[in-house]
Design goal:
Distance between the termini: 11 Å
Shape: globular
Strand content: under 5%
Bound molecules: protoporphyrin IX containing FE
């Protein structure tokens, strides 16, 4: 099955994560275009272990930060989304 933004990627981006990133004024995590445009930056930040400098998602939402298995799964899905042509 194809890895799509709506079915696979967007569910990682909770309403609270989205709101924080909108407040920072960087981009809208619910916008497929924004996430595609910032793909490399997002991969870079989400690849950094929780608690290290610049790691995303940051602490601040009730759902907290990602544990390492979640982080690894996201990176895998995020790469598959790109490999499949950003559907
Ligand atoms: C999956 C969720 C998230 C992703 C993918 C993400 C991604 C990113 C990326 C790629 C940047 C760097 C932008 C740039 O270099 O221009 C950034 C910056 C930032 N994000 Fe997030 N973010 C997420 C969640 C959060 C959360 C939950 C918070 C706060 C509670 C947050 C707060 C910030 C802040 C304050 C900055 C700018 C300052 C800094 O780099 O530390 N983000 N984010």
């Amino acid at each position: 099955m194809a890895t799509t933004f709506v079915d696979t990627i967007k569910p990682y981006f909770t309403p609270c994560y989205r709101a924080h990133m909108l407040a920072v004024g960087v981009f809208d995590l619910w916008s497929q275009d924004d996430v595609k445009t910032n793909w490399a930056d997002i991969l870079d930040r989400t690849s950094r272990p929780a608690g290290t400098a610049g790691s995303m998602p940051k602490a601040g939402c009730p759902e907290g930060v990602w544990d390492q298995p979640t982080r690894d799964q996201f990176v895998s899905d995020f790469n598959a989304w790109k490999a499949g042509g950003f559907l």
